[in-house]
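Lecture 7 notes: from sequence to structure.

We start with a single chain of 275 residues. Read the sequence below before looking at the structure.
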Amino acid sequence: MSRPEKNTVEYIPLDCQFSDSIQAVENLYGNDGFVVWVKLLQKLGRTENYIIDVRTNLQWTLFFSLFCMSENRVIEIINTLAELECIDKNLWKQKIIYSENFVKRISVVYKKRKYELKNLKDLLNEKNISVELTGGFFQKNEVSGEKTTSLFDGNTQSKVKESKVNNNNDKSLLLRENKKIEKTTIKVEETNKKVYGEFKNVFLTDKNVENLKKLYLEKFNEAIEKLSSYISYSGRKYKDHYAVLKKNNWVYNEIFNAKNQQQKEEKSNDEFNYV
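Now the structure, written as tokens:
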């Protein structure tokens, strides 16, 4: 009798030096960012076929409880990991967690196994996830006769659907969980940040960007890159990048003091030429 196929690993690759993307997550969220990323890798490694499905209430509850931190915090960090392409962004919108880079790195173990990794498309079909030819992903309405729970859509806004259950007690429990998730995801919507800068280490909300563009005008990109470069080479961590970029802070002062100095020099040259 042949041995059954094994599509998990007992060890995961963990670098001594993280990539810029993971370093950015740690800079933004501190130890919480590090914990979520490492535990997520561990969970991927021990999950069959390295693809985590958290579409139902029970799956999600068991998953986020791994991290021993608030549900809001876990969602916010994973949103950032998706934005940085550490996990597949389109699949995460469907509450499927998959990291192509992780799978590539552990694929070396299959050289000793007499079978290959399953194709991602086949795995998604098994889970009733359809893949568009354009590369986008959309979720079928039902999974094993049960409506799935979407914690939030691409805009991180909750669209929770009631599961089909026969037991009234289970149904009441799911409804209570749905309300809890709705409240959580509204908070995430308010605090959701996007990534900026050459080194992908400046995090701002859309409202932050709107205000900073009014402040810096044509100097907005210069301000972002100045902060991004400084964080990258210095290793400095800031709790709030928007606060660092506001008026009269060091980024603002450096940019506009330099601009004022240049204007003075140009004015002086004009006066000299006139004389």
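The mean pLDDT is 75. Keep this in mind for problem set 3.
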